[in-house]
Design brief:
alpha/beta, 8 helices, 30% helix, single chain, eight-stranded mixed sheet, TIM Barrel, 311 residues, disordered N terminus
Length: 311
């Protein structure tokens, strides 16, 4: 699942195809993908916790891989994870994860991150911690010990040894109604965020892009239920498939689903419109040009009044 971080620490994650400002044209999207900022950085060879410069976080993000088993109920055409290879661990090792997180947070607090390989050339503003992201090499709501992971991260923050950091929970939306997930997300503070995937406006297109077990109606129902409880951020990835962009009628259906969610009471803080930043496992999937992404975001703003940004 290509969320903010499909979180194998040795693979590409949050892509930064531009700086911290607004989207700008470049000499082809391929050059954007080759940017040194579009690479995960794991200089400590951690098993569960990694650092990355995140476009959507607008700076440094510490990620936690909730799915070392690679378990996912989506099979997105744009995902870079090879599920033909077995995962490294059946679940997150809580003591190891906790030690790795403490060590990285200590490096950030002491301003020593730039002493590590790959960080020395980065400007100061990119090394300011923006978030701790709970993501994975699969679907985070399927993490078998999610409650323990979230509780541990929140406890680490509560100890006060580092400045307060925002927690971002990234999901394909399908498991937000699971009792263990509901119980885990109760730990989140108002400042924390849930980033929920919505890549399609019709079941037909969802079948083409996400190839998911859960149907579209379940994804929408879960987004609505959580969006009624707290503001939620929608993350929508639109790829080129076999050289073809999403059909205009599909974009209109997608916009209609967003309108229906807001009318029904979902509080959508922002819509993130982006594309396949990392080399996908499927060879026929490519990055959608920036002009097309900008057109989708503009249509979202015009039709729904929601804030929409291109990444």
């Amino acid at each position: 699942m290509q969320n903010e971080a499909s979180a194998n620490p040795g693979r590409n994650h949050h892509a930064l195809q531009r700086g911290l400002g607004k989207p700008r044209p470049s000499e082809g999207d391929a050059k954007c993908l080759q940017s040194p900022f579009a690479r995960s950085r794991n200089p400590l060879s951690n098993g569960f916790v990694y650092t990355v410069i995140s476009q959507r976080a607008r700076g440094l993000s510490i990620g936690i891989n909730l799915n070392p088993d690679k378990r996912c109920n989506f099979d997105c055409v744009y995902c870079e994870i090879n599920r033909g290879e077995p995962g490294r661990e059946p679940k997150v090792n809580i003591p190891v994860m906790s030690e790795e997180l403490d060590r990285l947070l200590r490096l950030v607090r002491e301003d020593k991150l730039r002493e590590l390989p790959g960080f020395s050339h980065l400007p100061h503003e990119l090394l300011k911690l923006q978030e701790v992201a709970l993501s994975g090499d699969g679907e985070p709501t399927l993490c078998p010990n999610l409650y323990e992971v979230v509780r541990n991260v929140v406890f680490t923050r509560a100890r006060g040894n580092v400045p307060f950091f925002k927690i971002v929970f990234i999901t394909n939306s399908s498991g937000l109604d699971l009792p263990e997930v509901t119980r885990s997300l109760e730990f989140l503070a108002p400042e924390d965020e849930i980033w929920a995937k919505l890549d399609a406006g019709t079941q037909e297109y969802m079948n083409k892009v996400n190839r998911a077990e859960p149907p579209l109606w379940k994804v929408l129902a879960n987004i609505l239920a959580v969006g009624k409880l707290r503001p939620i951020i929608i993350q929508s990835l639109f790829p080129l498939i076999a050289g073809e962009p999403p059909p205009p009628e599909e974009i209109e259906q997608y916009v209609q689903r967003l309108k229906e969610l807001t009318v029904a009471g979902a509080r959508i803080a922002m819509v993130q419109v982006y594309s396949a930043h990392r080399p996908p496992h499927q060879p026929n999937c490519e990055h959608l040009p920036l002009k097309d992404l900008s057109s989708i975001a503009r249509r979202v703003r015009e039709a729904t009044g929601l804030k929409a940004e291109v990444f």
